Amino acid sequence: MDLYRKLYGYRDIERIHRQFIEHDLTGIDIMPFAAHISTINLTMQNIEYETNIVRIGTKDSLDLVKSLKTPDFNRRGIKISPYTETIQQTLFGITGQKVRKEGAISPEGKGYEFYIKPVNVVIMNPPFTDRHKMPEDYRKKLKLLNLRSICGGAVDLWGYFLALAHYFVKDGGKIGAVIPINIARGKFTKNIRELIFSQYQIKYIVKSIKDIGFSEAAGFRDILLVLEKRNPTSNDITKIIFLKKSIRALSLNEAKHIVNIIKDANSDYSDEFVDVNIIRFRDLIKFKENLMPLLSGHIKESRKMIESFEKVILKKGEDKLINITEDMISVGFITDKKGIADLTFITRPFDRRRVSRAFLILENDNNKEVMAKIKNTGITIKVQKSITKPALRTLTGVKTLDITNNHDYFIIDKFDDFDIVFNLSKWQKGRKFSWNWIKNKIPTLSYVVLAEKINPFSPNTSLISVYMENKFVVPHVFWIFKHIRSKDEGKMLCLYLNSIAFFIQYMRRKSEATGEYAHILKEDLILTKVLDFDTLAENKKRVLLELFEKLKDVEFPSILEQLENRFWARVELDKTILKILGFSNKEINEWLPKVYDALVEELKAMKEVR
Length: 610
Description:
alpha+beta, 35% helix, 24% strand, seven-stranded mixed β-sheet
């Protein structure tokens, strides 16, 4: 209506109001209340002209999928009948519970039937519901919708709605959606990314760097995605926008100003409200497996600095680095069954924050047995050391590269006090527990592991990788490096994984879905590079091993403190790795301070996101 008034003033305003409300705008929502409020909102856009006819319906729009694939959808359209309530009767005909409420709605309640045909524009904020948290009958329903070929069977509910929008919109039409940022990466969203990259021009990706999401009270980071339905060409332009002011603080005029900036920008642009980065499709498609390097970061200058540094690292280390492959890594022991960690892990309390979620807390150990206290009780239990393995349950509070003398324990067989522990644990009573199952589920062990999940600006996070002289057990929040053939290789890899050379790869490909925490999954890791020990010169290996012996017991402060205060061990580690990759002393002295400052800025900016 604003656009019409700008073009034509108030001429035929009643006719245009009716045209918009009764013919052009259509809405569907599963919640009757939301649909009813929308009808009132639309009709009240011009209170001088009464209309009771709107194209708003209450329905699970996924129920329309089968109809969208019929010739009738294009020719006649799908009929949305007036609103009805279906009452489930009891066996004896007594009125029971309302089980189905759907149909067209008007401000007065029951609406007028209307038809839906292919549309020019779909705008939506689909449900983000985790597929695992949906009722079983709804998961079965999704399997029958025949959308899995488009969105895959493992995507969460929003992916099905994006596939639905694909059927709704005409060729040349547009989709605008609030979508979880994880559409940018990972195997679960691979199918929907394939669809977008093959059949759409990605016109805009908008990320807020002050808010975790555009949805109110969002718990997971999301983005705005605008697509045009047509085959992309190599010169197509995508505008990636970083919104620098909180959406909660934007005025309407500021929002309109930002819209105009975004539409008019023909090259990279920056002001107090936005950063606009422009990328052509031929370059964008290189990031199809993981778009996060294009979407990560909060401050333009630091983002560019980190991106440039990574390019130099990969170029310099071309003959010394190899891609991580799927067969090189595996996830740690799966502890997704509630209570399984209670029965198997004993946590060493060298930092009080390590035991906030622990159940068995180490009191003492010797050559024969391990003694542990059951949390929130006065009970101490004993476990024969012969039925334990060295372990690391959590990286919280770990400050040294080498944890050989400071590790946790993992129990692999029944012990005398097991029944006491079992009865007090969170393990669901009545559910079978088998020590043979535990033994069989322990993955291939390694001397070195990498954290799958960290809080990079937490004072409790000092390292992202640790080493142990004995191969050790970790839960599934760690990655195990199966290709490591010796302790020496484990030591060298541990140094590299904690160095600036790998840390920036980690940070640029991590998931940002859960706010403060950074996750790096297998699909992300295989896009990173590590040292190739088969081609690394022997004299360089000696340098690394000598450095490990020097640094292995040094207590590192938090990652943020290391970078901000130029912690000596951090600097020595990074300089050594960069020299091995081929940097000169002059290049190191030029790059490192700038990159440290850029990372500090980024980590502090991440902390401010709400």
